[in-house]
Amino acid sequence: MMELPPTRAGHLGRALSATVILLFLAMPIVIILVTSFGADGIGTFPPEQYSTRWYEQMAAPGGNWATSIALSSLVAALTTVFSLILGVTAATALARGRLPLHAAVYGLVLAPMLIPQVVIALGLFLFFEPAGMLGSPLAIALGHTVLAAPIAILIMISTLKGIDERLEDAAASMGASRMTIARRITFPLATPGLIAAAVFSFITSFDEFFIAQFLSTPDTRTLPVLVFNALQFDVDPTVTAVSAVLIALAILALALVALVRKLGGHRNGQNVLPVEPLT
């Protein structure tokens, strides 16, 4: 069947449609960013006057916002460590191992992505409350790991399947131990995937609300919980500044992942095998 060449009208129509869709998707982000610089206390759009007062209030030392940002950062960092440990371990077993009931194990690992988060949060509350761990950053991080680990596992499975196993077999045939193969071949080639898994685990934890709401106390509130409390009975314009920072964080994270994958692919294409001996 002969394919007809695209017409100029077709190109124009696709470009116009894509532009409209992108503007529609970006509109809420633009509104938040502009409103965050408003000087009034009711968060109107567009602002009549511009100021950075809400950013200054958000970053004020010792304030509720700064404390919640620090707590969310700590919890997200712990979640990232736990998720990477589980992600590398489970992904190696699923991608390279010969597990019995492989499909069932794979489904069980990914189950937290399908179960409503409020159900997981309730189960974690019933687990940690008798242990007196409500409000503990460790408990919140463990709860967030339930959601972040499946994402890390999916990324690492895709990364490991993209590594040519013949490289590892060749190193083993030359006498390299399993640890040497992992250290000199597998992990260097999997670095882009590790960084992507770490970034998405951090973002998942930093933005999570339901588990943090169930496991937090009045003295330990993560940033999403504080945002919810600030909007529950009134409109605090500081929330717009917080939202703008979260948007910027997400954009930077995606840019970092894209850059690392591009550099990793270029490096792997130029020099896959290390030049020094593997033993």
Automatic annotation (TrEMBL):
<feature type="transmembrane region" description="Helical">
    <location>
        <begin position="20"/>
        <end position="45"/>
    </location>
</feature>
<keyword id="KW-0813">Transport</keyword>
<keyword id="KW-1003">Cell membrane</keyword>
<keyword id="KW-1133">Transmembrane helix</keyword>
<feature type="transmembrane region" description="Helical">
    <location>
        <begin position="185"/>
        <end position="206"/>
    </location>
</feature>
<protein>
    <submittedName>
        <fullName>ABC transporter permease</fullName>
    </submittedName>
</protein>
<feature type="transmembrane region" description="Helical">
    <location>
        <begin position="103"/>
        <end position="128"/>
    </location>
</feature>
<feature type="domain" description="ABC transmembrane type-1">
    <location>
        <begin position="69"/>
        <end position="258"/>
    </location>
</feature>
<feature type="transmembrane region" description="Helical">
    <location>
        <begin position="65"/>
        <end position="91"/>
    </location>
</feature>
<dbReference type="InterPro" id="IPR000515">
    <property type="entry name" value="MetI-like"/>
</dbReference>
<dbReference type="Pfam" id="PF00528">
    <property type="entry name" value="BPD_transp_1"/>
</dbReference>
<keyword id="KW-0472">Membrane</keyword>
<comment type="similarity">
    <text>Belongs to the binding-protein-dependent transport system permease family.</text>
</comment>
<feature type="transmembrane region" description="Helical">
    <location>
        <begin position="239"/>
        <end position="260"/>
    </location>
</feature>
<feature type="transmembrane region" description="Helical">
    <location>
        <begin position="134"/>
        <end position="157"/>
    </location>
</feature>
<keyword id="KW-0997">Cell inner membrane</keyword>
<dbReference type="InterPro" id="IPR035906">
    <property type="entry name" value="MetI-like_sf"/>
</dbReference>
<keyword id="KW-0812">Transmembrane</keyword>
